[in-house]
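subagent[fold] <- orchestrator: predict structure for attached chain, return C-alpha cells only, no commentary.
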Amino acid sequence: MQKNRQRDRSYHNVKKVIACVLSLVFLIIAIAVPVHAEEEQAEATPSRIPLSNLEETIDAYVASYEKYTAAVSVVAIKDGETIVNKAYGYADIENQRKADTSTVFEWASISKLLVYTSVMQLVEQGKLDLETDIQEYLPEGFFKKLKYDDPITLMNLMHHNAGWEDQTVTEVYYYEENKNYDLGETLRENEPKQIYKPNSVVGYSNYSVGLAGYIVELVSGQPYYEYVNQHIFEPLHMNDTTVHPTGQDRPDIVQRRNEVEGYTKDLKRIPENRVFVTFYPTGAAIGTAEDLGKFLAALMPVDDSHVLFAKRDTLDEMLSTSLYYDGTSIPRFAHGFVEMEYWAPTLLHEGNLKGFSSKVVFDPASKFGMVVMTNIAFEEIYYYGLISKIFGNSAYVNSVTSEGGGYFQSARRTASRFTDLFRQLDITKFSKAELSSLYNVVEHNGTVEKISYTPYMDYLPVSNLKVNLIVISFIPVILAILFILSVLIGYLIRMLLYKRNKRGNPPTHFDKYYLAINFAGAVLPLNLLIIHSKLPSYPAYSSLRINLMFNLLYVVLAVAYLGLLMYKLWKNSYSKKQKLMYIMSGISAAILAAFIVGWNLYV
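subagent[fold] -> orchestrator:
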C-alpha cells in the first residue's frame, strides 16, 4: 500500500511538471507571436509589402507600365542600407541608350533639401538663428519691394510664407551655360513684390529658398555649391552629384547628364531640355538616384551616428514638425521637408524640371525610404503611382460647414508680371463636396477663408464679383478684336470694289494710320496666344522679349493714333461714315491698350 501511495504521489508530481512545462511553452508562444508579428511588420513597407518581395514588386510595376516609360531609377533604403538600386528604360529613346544605376538625373526642387540641411548645420554652429530677421544677415538695403514691416525669418523661407509673389518662368530659368553667375546679384535684380503678410499664406517660392542658400553663402564665407560639396557631398561620398549652377565644377557629370534626354508624358523628346535655374540652390542639383539614396540614408541613421550634424538632436529637430495646417494638429512642414500621411507618417519632397520628375519619400520611424527619378516632365506613374504602391494612399478629410463651394486662386501667383493674366484664367471653382476632400480648409463663421490644395501652397477665395469683373473685362476686348477684324475685311472689300468699279469713297491720307492700328490690333491676340503657348516650355526671357516689346509698342501706337486722330478730325473734313470708323478704331485701340497695361502684358 505504501508503494502505491508513493507511485500515486510520483505520478501526481510528473503531471504537475508537465503542466508547468506546457504553461511555460504557451507563455513563450504568447510572447513570441506578437514579437514575431512586430518583426514581420518592421520588415515590410508602409503598404505592408514584405521587403523580401519589394524588388519583385517594383519590377512587376515597371513592367506593367513599360510602354509609358522613358527612364526610371528607383532606390530603396532600409536601416541605412540600400536594398533596391535599379534603373529601367531608356535615357535616350532615339539612340536606344539604356538607363542604368550610373544615369544622371535632374534633382529639380529636391535640391532644396540641401539648403535646409545647410541652414540647420549653421544653426547648430550658432551662426544662424531660425527666428532672426534675415535682413540681419543680408547686405544693408538688400530689399526694395517689401510691403510689410513684419520680420522675415529663415523659418518663413523654409515654410514658403514670407509673402512674396511668384516669379515668371522667364525669371526662374535660363539657357546660357557659360553665364557669369553671382547668386546675390541675381536675387537682388529679381526681387519679387511682397503681396502677403509674412506667416499668413503659404505660396511655394523658389526665391525664398534661393535667398536661404545665399545666406548660407554669406555666413559660411564660401560659394553655396562649395559649401554643399564640403559639408554634405564629401562626408556622404556622393561622388556623382553636383549643385553648381551649371555643373562646371564636375564636367564629367555634365557629360553624363548630356547623354540623357527629357520627354513629355507621351514620350516625345523635349528639345533644349537642359535648363539652368536662376536661383540655383532651389533646383540645380544633378546626379544619380544612388547618390540621393546616400543623402536619404543619412537622414535616417540606425544608431547615434549622424554624419550631417555634430549632434543627433539637430537632425531630430530638422525632421520635426515646424508648421501645421492652420487651426489643426496636422503636420505640414518639418523645416522645409513636406510632411505627408500615407499609411505611415512620412517626410518627402518633389521635383519637376523641364523633362525630369523626381521624388524622395521616407519614414524616419521605420527607417525606410525611397527615391524615384525619371526623365519625363510632370510624370505621374512612378512619381505618384509607385510611391502610393509602396507607401499606401494619402488623404486628409475635413469637416466643411460652409453652405457651399466657391472660386479659389493659388497663392503662388504673379501680381505684377505678364503671367498674371494667365494665372487669373486658372481660377478654380470647388463644390462643397470637393472642399471636404482637400488637405485643409480654414473657415470662419461658415465662410471658407483659405484652402490647402497641396502642402506647398494655399488657395485663397475669389469673390463672385471679381470673377464676373474678369469675365466682363474680356467682353470689350473681344468686341474690339471682332470690330478690328471686320474693319480689315471690310476695307479689303471696299478697295477691291473701288478699283474694279471706281465706286465708293476713295482712300484718304489718314487711311494708312487707320489700317496700321487695326492691323496691329489683329496681330495682338495672336501674339498673346504665342506667349501663352511658350510658357509650359520654360522659355528664356530672350525668347519672349520680342512678344512683350510688341505689346508695349502697341500701347505706344494706340496713344499715337488717338492723338493723331483728334488732330486730323480738327483739321480735316471726313464723311460721317469715315469719322465713325476712325473713332471706333481709336476706341478699340484704347480698349486693347488698357488691357495690356492693366494685366502687365509688357513686363
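orchestrator: received. Logging for downstream: The two ends are 116 Å apart (CA to CA). Residues 2-42 form the longest helix (41 residues).
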